[in-house]
């Protein structure tokens, strides 16, 4: 029933998925972390490595439109999925509206948590364009910032909600 | 880019069975070298922390038919163990039939982790924060043990998990209390205390589910857990409350019963006395909130 051979192991190790709108096919270990695949195999270093236990949110990406911690996710779990990283939000010509709001409202300081924050805000607004403060707190509880005290981040989110985080009118 | 030989050797083989029976037969074949994998969020943190080693084989349950989703079976609500915590959190059916489970799930980790993590994974963890809610709801768990189907209550599972290798196949929440009169009103509460307001491991969790009628409480189940404490029923407090109308004197007795029966595991973050007092206060306060009219007259 089970062909427990190295050939069998390797055969299942090809990751086929879509990253930022482009098809990707890679030979990676099925248990490789998505974070490692993105940063080291694809060079997408906007996704940050930090706590590595799913707590800080610096490694946040969207998988099929849902935010997930790439440090907790293994390659086989995203087979066939559509992955969006921070690099996939902006167009070539301009920033994503949520990025623009963070820029204009001072939603960052050292910037290390910012990609994960922006991915989480984008995912939240795609699911719920008009969240209450309670819903914002729940959606953002998985993203930590040690610099800003969150004031600028909450201003940025409020601005993104006001101006419509899905459109390009935050400028 | 090619995968290095070293990486390949370190990595477990991932098997993706299509049926519970196939998954169980893989586990039988590989024995302790294999681990079932659901959302794998806990496994990954254990591997990172060094509290568990990566197994040689992962049996991914993600493609097993029939293990996902929330359905009805007669009066029971049936939850597939591979249903994510987010799906439980947003389920209208669960909001109606098991609101304390929704409250419990809402307080587990953050949205992004809940998108991966499953209810089954939290249950099998045994000290997961959903377990007190499932005990209070009198939920039962269905398992596949080899080729045999086994059903246990969540309470039995928490008290004494089987040493046999089992695959959780469903989590079943009963409908109304058998024998409850039509005018019986349900009351329930779930509270979690941690070291932070959100996204925090629990120190103490309590869950209460009961029915009240004109002549007093007609049914009640109280469970307490939190941290590494295996959730248990607070049977002495239940006995005091059954048939009664909670007033200040009864709530004082309930407080003391929980204080006596709840035996938390301690850790460097909180002593057992703090946890005991917290659990007792949470139970008494939750009941006071439900019965504040009669309680204020005591």
From TrEMBL, chain A:
Pathway where this protein functions: Alkaloid degradation; nicotine degradation
Gene3D superfamilies the UniProt entry points to: 3.10.20.30, [2Fe-2S]-binding domain
MF terms in GO: 2 iron, 2 sulfur cluster binding; metal ion binding; oxidoreductase activity
Record keywords, A-Z: 2Fe-2S, Iron, Iron-sulfur, Metal-binding, Oxidoreductase
The UniProt record lists the keyword Metal-binding: yes
Keyword Ubl conjugation among UniProt keywords: no
PANTHER family referenced in this protein's UniProt entry, alphabetically: OXIDOREDUCTASE WITH IRON-SULFUR SUBUNIT (PTHR44379)
Name of the featured protein: (2Fe-2S)-binding protein
